[in-house]
Design a protein that fits this description.
By secondary structure, the chain is an alpha/beta fold. It is built from eight helices and eight strands. It has a three-stranded mixed β-sheet. Strands 4-5-6 form a three-stranded mixed β-sheet. A hairpin with a 2-residue loop joins strand 2 and strand 3. Helix 3 runs parallel beside helix 5, helix 4 runs antiparallel to helix 5 and helix 4 packs across helix 7. The longest helix has 13 residues.
Length: about 200
């Protein structure tokens, strides 16, 4: 898989139930304030929960030759506090494939191009811009949850607001484009964050 490779959280700082500690032990440590839940795993409470930790937290749910996308990728990139209930993945393989996913994972057949993918902690993740495009057009089809994830992502990454607007302009025939433009125009707090980030 092509894409930018980012640093990983040290394995000693990430606990999966059934590894070094059982789920019962990790739950007790969480109640004592020693660890915090990050996706499907736990980290010491005094460590930083960055993209690498979040990617590690969902790594077991992302099948090979796919990349986290949509709300899952937005969460990995820093949007929101808790991960989405249903995780989203897109194929990165050049050919169609059969993917075994859990009931908590929604597989999207449309391929993520190599330039749209980063590898974070060994997990393919669509870039912030590609993620914003996915969320915007899903929101344009009426998914309010995706609009909330889009807003959270753009507030976290205001530097992608202008490239997102440009990308939408480059897609005159994509279904939902008119509604997507309207959604972008209706996000004044995102515009304010972008202006603050560029001043």
């Amino acid at each position: 898989m092509a894409g930018l490779i980012l640093w990983s959280v040290h394995p000693a700082l990430f606990y999966r139930p059934g590894g070094r500690l059982s789920l019962t032990e990790l739950a007790a440590a969480r109640l004592d304030g020693l660890v915090v839940e990050v996706g499907e795993g736990y980290m010491p409470a005094d460590t930083v929960e960055g993209a690498s930790a979040r990617a590690a937290g969902v790594a077991a749910l992302i099948p090979p030759r796919t990349a986290a996308c949509g709300s899952t990728a937005a969460w990995i990139h820093g949007a929101g506090d808790a991960p989405p209930t249903i995780h989203h993945v897109r194929r990165t393989a050049a050919t169609r494939m059969r993917v075994q996913v859990s009931a908590r994972v929604l597989y999207h057949e449309r391929r993520a191009a190599p330039e749209e993918v980063r590898v974070i902690h060994g997990v393919g993740v669509t870039t912030p811009l590609a993620t914003a495009v996915d969320l915007l057009f899903a929101a344009a089809l009426g998914d309010e949850r995706d609009e909330r994830w889009l807003r959270a992502l753009l507030l976290t990454r205001p530097e992608i607001v202008a490239p997102l607007r440009d990308r939408v302009q480059e897609m005159p025939r994509r279904p939902g484009r008119r509604c997507a433009v309207g959604i972008l125009a209706s996000l004044p707090d995102v515009d304010a964050a972008h202006r603050a980030g560029t001043s």
